[in-house]
Amino acid sequence: MVDHSLYKEKSIQGRYINMEAIQPCFSKVSCPITHIGYSVEGIGINAFRLGKGGKKVLMWSQMHGNESTTTKAVWDLVNFLQSDDSLAQNILRECSLMIVPMLNPDGARIYTRENFNKVDLNRDAKDLTQPESIALRNLFESFHPDFCFNLHDQRTLFSAGKANKSATVSFLSPASNQERHITPTREVAMKLIVGMNAMLQKHIPSQVGRYDDGFNDNCIGDTFQMLNVPTILFESGHYPKDYEREKTRELIFLSIIEALKIITNNEIDTYKTGDYFSIPGNQKLFFDVIIRNPELVNPEIEPGQKVGIRYKEVLDVDKIIFKPEIAEIGLLEGFYGHQTIECIDTKDFGFASSEKEILDLLLKTKK
């Protein structure tokens, strides 16, 4: 197993990653940088090609500007691939990797999902109304990839199935038609996902999820799958107490390497398509915090009810703060919390000083 700590790009940490933060990383790349276009605000979008093999893999990160975990993992991957590790050398001998570390620099700068024009680039694959979408499509058509890796983050609310397990990593082999047929292209992507899942179960058992495969031909994964290129959606999710997503970063790094190893060694057909469907489907069953017995703090809340809190990610200069917001008040049967707060009595609320903001929210809550 590859030791992630040897290759972690220490210059980038946390959730707020913009183009300025990764600019020094480009200077470490041992190959020419290719300019593929500009963002709406005129920031250059760059890519680079590693390896000389015949198996072509196109991967892009931060299509959504506030989804930065895979960007960190990509730079860790670059450090690994430029090392003397024998697996890295084998991958570069068999594969050619075209990497776009940040497709949406405007969204990354202001920490939004959309680009500067407030367009979701992952809903612009068919219409191609935005310069970032056009840049990726032109790269796809000039590079002629055999595989595509679409790298994203997902919210903390997702569970892996209905169990009390967060979906720390999720995958999808997108559909290429409304009927969601298992086409040969889609089947290849499924088998690669099965291979990555087998590896991840050794690290995060029961914490891998399968993303919903509803068809939308304006989504980039569905579009590329329609164009007969096996495409995999990677979703970086929540690992317990890892809101900066540094552990998830490691798991995505390992997942990409595992997929590249399977491709390099021609092992795709050793995995079974049916095992893809044994990966539990993502469910939206988590709150960041569940408060029990909240009526002991606020008599406006009926006994027996719970308060579910989810954090809103807010950009504060150059870091992300997690602002609690009450998402739901009710019985919350079948829901889980990444943290549970038990109100004890009116004299001892059971809140730590760091949870004062949550306490203030609870006190202000009305029926």
TrEMBL record:
GO biological process terms held by the UniProt record: proteolysis
Single annotated GO MF: metallocarboxypeptidase activity
Tree of life domain: Bacteria
Domain annotation Peptidase M14: ranges: 3-263
PROSITE patterns given in the database record: PEPTIDASE_M14
Active-site residues, record numbering mapped to chain: E235
Protein family per UniProt: Belongs to the peptidase M14 family.
Name of protein: DUF2817 domain-containing protein
